[in-house]
Specification:
mainly beta; Trefoil (Acidic Fibroblast Growth Factor, subunit A); Ricin_B-like_lectins; signal; Ricin B lectin domain-containing protein; Ricin_B_lectin
Length: 219
């Protein structure tokens, strides 16, 4: 059973948070700065602080250390969400349709709502900032339930840690998405269309698992 999480992110969704209010995830900016996550407008930090969920405990026996395979992501901000693109395959994360339980997949990147993801800030004070990833087409949250190798799905957003993703900065401006409940990272193996992302042990040793910005740069 998934561990219950704070209700702050849900309150943001229920309140109809606009795209302008979503936090930007900025990594390796053109000015040379790296690993920065912040709100889009000066003065919004306090709002996010009030909205963040309560501090959570990692599942018993799970550490914060990175382990296993590598899964690194880089987000591309969009008014209606962001593409999240795999650097190995060059393809983007998506979920087709709006059914609960629909599996995430990768496909050639395009400007479609089912490839756009809204990063809703959940916790700004833990070691890693954490977010809900809400699909712009379905309005549902990305989650993983089960052991290593379990697929990423979408489901109606609820008060569960398996819908919370920690953004962990990695080298060269990339970042990983680690599921708060399972403490494993999101990965897609191979370059075929419709390959399904799964969760696996986090590791930064495999460069063919790196993820990058939508325009193909590593800025």
């Amino acid at each position: 059973m998934a561990v219950k999480a704070g209700r702050a992110g849900l309150a943001l969704l229920a309140a109809g948070v606009t795209a302008a209010a979503w936090p930007q995830v900025a990594w390796a900016e053109r000015d040379g700065s790296q690993g920065r996550i912040q709100g889009p407008e000066q003065g919004r930090d306090q709002d996010w602080e009030q909205a963040r969920g309560r501090e959570r405990q990692s599942p018993q026996g799970q550490g914060r250390e990175q382990r296993g395979r590598e899964q690194e992501w880089q987000g591309h901000d969009q008014a209606a969400g962001r593409n999240v693109r795999n650097a190995n395959s060059g393809k983007c994360l998506l979920v087709r349709g709006d059914a609960d339980g629909a599996k995430a997949a990768q496909s050639s990147c395009a400007d479609y709502p089912d490839q756009k993801w809204r990063f809703i800030l959940e916790d700004a004070e833990s070691e890693y900032k954490s977010y809900r990833l809400v699909n712009a087409n379905s309005g549902k949250c990305l989650l993983v339930r089960g052991p290593e190798g379990s697929p990423a799905l979408q489901s109606t957003c609820g008060d569960y840690d398996d819908q919370i993703w920690e953004v962990m900065s990695a080298r060269n401006g990339y970042f990983q998405l680690r599921n708060l409940a399972g403490q494993q990272c999101l990965v897609v193996r191979g370059d075929e269309d419709n390959a399904h992302p799964v969760q696996s042990d986090c590791d930064t040793a495999y460069t063919d698992q790196f993820w990058r910005d939508e325009d193909g740069s590593s800025r």
